[in-house]
Amino acid sequence: MPQPCHTYTRLLCVGERLRLSADAGFWVVAAALLVVMAVGTAPAALWPVYQATGGLSDTTIAVLAGAVVVGATVSFLLLGHLSDRYGRRRVLVPAVLTSALSVVLMALVPTVPGLLAGRVLTGLALGIVAPTATAYLLDLHRAARPDSTGVVRATTVATAANLGGLAVGPVLAGVLAEFLPAPLVLTFLVLAVLLVTAAVLLLACPETVGSPPVLARRARFALRPGSATQFWGAAVGGSVSFATSGALGALGGVVLRNQLDVTSTLVWGAAIGLVHAASALAQIAAATWPTRALFACGTVLLAGGLGLMTVALVDPMLWLWLAGCAVTGAACGLLFKAALLTSTLVAEPAARAGVLAVYFSVAYLGMAGGGLILAVLRGYTGPVTALALLSALMVLLAVIGGLTAVRRTSDEEEAPHSVRAAP
């Protein structure tokens, strides 16, 4: 039954009259997710600038970088499930606009309190957008291709948008900072324009959630029977992916400046962008791999990539650091894809956004933890020892998470994604 057109609902009704096809809406949602994720990592190329101009310590930078997790965790757990009840589009549009507000705040108030508030707002938006957009992509994929029984396309695009956005953010910021004036303002204003444009286009996307399912009324988080162990193992694997990229996003630029004597903001941004770009490319290349292979290969690459980066600090070599960034990024992509796919498959269909919200909250806690752990270790040891210790911890957790996530009974052995997809 149509809803009355009042205030915000009036805009939704206008969007209904300008409705895009499910396939076009699929790509609009993917683009919106990419831009929102870019907001989360754009400051990675700018933290050394803030540190140089404001005299901020490594720990302060790590706190600012990780502050997004405060908002994200609250949002994931309290708001991330709302689209299961009220509709994907109705929830997604204001979340994207909240992200726009966060970057405007960071542009206008470039102090520690202003940046802290902006990062928390960024997290609030991420906490809604990540699970909602991911669930929306799954819905629109099924609406556009009703004969399809799989979720490979949807999960591949979702992970590509997530990790591709994380790659675009620091590269965009690095380019703007290198070649244009006022980078601490211009970067965020450009992102604000992109976000507002995405919100307008989202108004025309078809809604995929009708009346709230019974399950959505009684439970925000519901897994298929016997799947709890798999889910929590996947959550650990996802947190390793985010912790590794989070540590590099928070302090990678600082390491390049202080240990490798690199002064270019473009290189700072490109290095962390390389991590996320490799993540996106790896999970696209492994689109049809089973979760067992994704976890195994991701863990091996993680050990190799972090090892290269550690060696690059022993005898400072920029090229080896960048090679390590690429290998580590590929590892993060495979681990993230494996964890996201597992979480999607074990969720009850009517509680999918709620389950993904919990998954992303654990992953984002890892993002903050990685940066803070590296900052503390750098304070008590040297940069090489700190990275080596963090690397060992990440690989250990990846092994534990992967082994737990792929543990199945004999009748649940790895099946093609199309068979195991939630209806």
What report would you give on this structure?
The chain has 423 residues and is mostly helical. It has a single domain (14-420), classed as MFS general substrate transporter like domains (Growth Hormone, Chain: A, Up-down Bundle), CATH 1.20.1250. 78% of the residues lie in helices and 0% in strands. It has 18 helices and no strands. The chain has helices at residues 8-17, 22-41, 47-54, 58-66, 68-78, 82-86, 88-108, 112-144, 152-179, 183-202, 214-218, 228-258, 265-285, 291-314, 318-346, 352-380, 383-405, 417-420. α2 runs antiparallel to α8, α2 packs antiparallel against α10 and α8 runs antiparallel to α16. The longest helix is centred in the first third of the chain and has 33 residues, at 112-144. The radius of gyration is 20 Å and the shape is globular. Residues 1-5, 214-219 and 409-423 have low confidence and may be disordered.
Task: Spell out the blueprint of helices and strands.
Layout: H1 8-17, H2 22-41, H3 47-54, H4 58-66, H5 68-78, H6 82-86, H7 88-108, H8 112-144, H9 152-179, H10 183-202, H11 214-218, H12 228-258, H13 265-285, H14 291-314, H15 318-346, H16 352-380, H17 383-405, H18 417-420
- Count of runs of 4 or more consecutive helical residues: 18
| Model regions low in confidence, pLDDT < 50 over at least 5 residues | 1-5, 214-219, 409-423
CATH architecture: Up-down Bundle
CATH domain fold name: Growth Hormone, Chain: A
**Strand coverage percent:** under 5%
CATH class: Mainly Alpha
